[in-house]
Amino acid sequence: MTNPMTVRSTATTPFPGQRPGTSGLRKKTRVFMEPGYVENFVQSVFNALAEDPEVDFGKEALVVGGDGRYFNRQAIQTIVRMAAANGFRRVLAARGGILSTPAMSAVIRRKGALGGFVLSASHNPGGIDADFGIKYNIRNGGPAPAAFTERIYAHTRSISRYRTLDWPDIDLDREATLAVDGCEVRVFDPLEEYVALMQELFDFDRLRGFLTGGFRMVFDAMHAVTGPYARRIFEDLLGAPAGTVLHATPLEDFGGEHPDPNLTHAAELVARMEAPEGPDFGAACDGDGDRNLILGRDFFVTPGDSLAIIAEHAQRAIPGYRGGLAGLARSMPTSTAADRVAEALGIPCYETPTGWKFFGNLMDAGLCTLCGEESFGTGSNHIREKDGLWAVLAWLSILEETRQPVSGVVKAHWRRFGRSYYQRHDYEGLDAATSTEMMDELRERLPHLPGQRLGAGEIIRADDFSYTDPVDGSTSSAQGIRIFLDDGSRVVCRLSGTGTEGATLRIYLESYRRDPVEDDIQAVLAPAAHGIRAMLHLEQRFDREEPDVVT
Ligand code: VG1
Ligand code: CO
User: Fold this and answer.
1) What is the pLDDT of residue 1?
2) Does domain 420-550 have CATH number 3.30.310.50?
3) Is 122 a known active-site residue?
4) In the prediction, which pLDDT does 442 show?
5) Alpha carbons 511 and 490: distance in angstroms, whole number
6) Whose CA is nearest to atom 16 of ligand 1?
7) Interval between CA 498 and ligand 1 midpoint (Å)
8) Helix 337-345 and helix 303-317, axial crossing angle in degrees, nearest 10
9) Which of 54, 57, 118, 291 allows an S-S link to 135, with CB 3.0 to 4.6 Å?
10) For residue 488, what pLDDT band results from cuts at 50, 70 and 90?
11) Which atom of ligand 1 is the closest one to the Cα of 373?
12) Same fold across 7-190 and 194-417
């Protein structure tokens, strides 16, 4: 039991805006550093958890870890003290404060914890003048669902006290079991559970033969959390030469770069893959290790194709899926490539709103095995988060099995299923009020859009995506505007829920061709891109013509 003499109940007042977005609470680091800011949010999570009469913290364990960015360690110390003060029986704290998002999911599940806090703003830059974030994951290992994050938010608006301890910082760098007042705090090896899980799913002996038999890969950890995991898996266990993993040491500011694995931010990796004697395979993960980028020699695999291709080959190439797939799921803006594979496999493909939290129920109910998002997220029911290194191992397995280059695997997929030409255009740092107004206006125009022209096509249908969870019946509305054209293409518009400054408009463009001949994605998508820009009056409203990032 916690000693009442050391517990401190501290008076506090609410901070505005502590509403979790697409993936946790994300703000500028300095906002999180304000006294009481982390405490208010964490206590609100505990208060929301305690509303469940079945939950008794005295019998539960809580996991905590992060992606290593600036303020990670301080936030962990704060959470350890608060968990002890709130009566948790055990706290599992990752050694060095390093725990990837997928590893968090694995640890919660394998240790039977009540939940865990991941300290990360994912692919957003880190540092005192950059971004920080807190995500809470529930017992199934997945992100807290919307109904729960709304309850957390309600608590943040009425909070008046938080509980903490007068207790010194623990030593996070040595594995040990410590007593923090009456709470058992275990500093654990963040690699162990995750690596064991990967060894259960994939054939490490075969992959080792492949990586020591002439196949050459390079992996970019982007100075973020996957460095130690990737070194252990690719270099130590699979025998790839030392130096296969680039930027392997997690840095508090990610080397001043965006730990965002796409063609823009993973520029060094891309350059290596374009070099004449470049490696056969290249990959990268984001800040917290849940996103992935897959590259062949001078060849980029879109995330939508990646999901479809993993689904196409999983049963044959990956031991963990020998029993077949129950179903697939993708977020609504993600390309429809996975739908076609699902059809061929005779299994359903669910379409969910953006954000991983919507996949959890489907997986818990056994409805879906693999899922993914256009934002470089791919994963399976082995955990309840997207998993960057899992995707890399899945691709390695497919390449080992087919003995084809990356481009060969993708082109064979296009020949069999046709091709979704796909791009996402992001307009960042827009005025928030104007952006909301623009979306509202578009929403009002929806009934009048059919029949109008957009780019090279005519609009046949337009709606605002609404999702009813087939498992718990909950509905999430206003999840993005979809415009369907008569030439088989689709445009989706939504505002980001992860930004920390102004608003980010995301425009998703897709055009499906059964017999793809055109290689130039730009050329295929340009008419729709111009059409939607004009329809939204982006130039007049924001003085913007071109997107800031194209992925
Ligand atoms: C973005 C992506 C979404 C992803 C989310 C979290 O959200 O679009 O697909 O799940 O980031 O990813 P938004 O609301 O900004 O579009 V991660 O790797 O940043 O936790
Ligand atoms: Co991430």
Assistant:
1) 52
2) yes
3) yes
4) 95
5) 6
6) 496
7) 6
8) 20
9) 118
10) confident
11) 9
12) yes
> 254 with 278: CB under 8 angstroms?
no
Q: How far apart are CA 251 and CA 248, in angstroms?
A: 9
Q: Residue 77 has what pLDDT?
A: 98
Mean pLDDT for 255-267 is 92
Residue identifier of the C-alpha nearest atom 13 of ligand 1: 496
The whole-angstrom separation of Cα 117 and Cα 138 is 9
Which ligand 1 atom sits closest to the C-alpha of 291?
18
Cβ neighbours of residue 7 closer than 8 Å, sequence gap 6 or more: 85, 163, 164, 165, 181
- Output the CATH code of domain 7-190: 3.40.120.10
Task: For ligand 1, say whether the CB of 124 is within 6 Å of any of its atoms.
Answer: no
Active-site residue identified among 23, 105, 120, 122: 122
Domain boundaries, the chain: 7-190, 194-417, 420-550
The residue-averaged pLDDT of 337-356 equals 97
pLDDT at position 512 is 94
- C-beta 378 within 6 A of ligand 1: no
CA distance 229 to 68: 13
Distance 147 CA to ligand 2 centre (A): 22
CATH code matching the domain that covers 194-417, chosen among 3.40.309.10, 3.40.50.720, 3.40.120.10, 3.30.1950.10: 3.40.120.10
Q: Is 290 in the pocket of ligand 1 (CB under 6 A)?
A: yes
Ligand 1 binding pocket includes 95 (Cβ within 6 Å): no
pLDDT digits (tens, 9 = 90+) for 493-540: 999 988 778 899 999 999 999 887 777 888 899 999 999 999 999 999
